[in-house]
Amino acid sequence: MTRIRTVAWGAVAAAAMVLAGVAASAASGPAAERQAIMKQTGLQMRDVSAFATGQKPWDAAKVKALTGAIAANGKKLQGLYPPGSGADPKSEADPKIWTNKADFTKRLAEMSTLATAAGKASNAEAFKPAFLKMSGTCKSCHDIYRKKKT
Ligand code: HEC
């Protein structure tokens, strides 16, 4: 009985921490703007992934629109890491961004290039590997430049 209680409280505490994490992500200024664009990009990636997995029937126009939006977001993001904007306590941007700015910007440009390339696929078979390449740029950048939530 005691054990079950402890487990239940543990779950409540964990949920509270998740909620605290959500509230903490409401930054302001360029940090808020880039977070909003990243969030939107995440949703666009989720939507377009359905065409890579075959969950949704191939729709070239939709895939082109989504990958085009992702490519445009990559371009917008390039201007949203001005010097000093890493100091926002709500930002998950790692200070390494500003010491390796050229590499960071190159990765955002690559995300856009690969998204545009993926949008040229003419069927799901061709889109799948292009989608994987594009999503690889998200993960490889986050691994280096996005602070892990503790
Ligand atoms: C060049 C590096 C880079 C690339 C490429 C990149 N991200 Fe990010 N991403 C970041 C950084 C840095 C943050 C943290 C931003 C902050 O808090 O200021 C972030 C944050 C996020 C967030 C959290 C936003 C929030 O709610 O605070 C999501 C979701 C996200 N990225 C999705 C993606 C997806 C999907 C892709 C690929 C299509 C992608 N990112 C590509 C660097 C990158």
SSE blueprint and pairings:
Blueprint: H1 2-24, H2 29-53, H3 60-78, H4 96-99, H5 101-118, H6 124-145
Helix pairs in contact: 2-3, 2-6, 3-5, 5-6
The structure holds heme C.
Residues 25, 31, 34-35, 38-39, 41-42, 45, 70, 91-93, 104, 107-108, 111, 137-138, 141-142, 145-146 line the site of heme C.
If you had to describe this structure to a student in words, what would you say it looks like?
The chain has 150 residues and is mainly alpha-helical. The protein has one domain (28-145): Cytochrome c/b562 (Four Helix Bundle (Hemerythrin (Met), subunit A), Up-down Bundle), CATH 1.20.120. 74% of the residues lie in helices and 0% in strands. The protein is built from six helices and no strands. It has helices spanning 2-24, 29-53, 60-78, 96-99, 101-118, 124-145. The chain is elongated. The protein binds heme C (HEC).
CATH class: Mainly Alpha
Rg: 18 Å
Class by helix and strand content? mainly alpha
Fourth CATH level, the homologous superfamily: Cytochrome c/b562
Query: Cα distance, first to last residue?
Result: 30 Å
Hetero groups in this structure are: heme C
Major sheet, described briefly? none
Question: What is the mean predicted local confidence, pLDDT?
Answer: 88
Secondary structure tally, helices: 6
Order of helices and strands: HHHHHH
List how many beta strands DSSP finds.
Answer: 0
Shape: elongated
CATH-scheme architecture: Up-down Bundle
Q: Beta-strand level of the residues, as a percent range?
A: under 5%
- Assign a percent range to the helix content: over 70%
Number of domains: 1
Find the CATH topology: Four Helix Bundle (Hemerythrin (Met), subunit A)
Runs with pLDDT <50, length 5+? Answer: 19-25
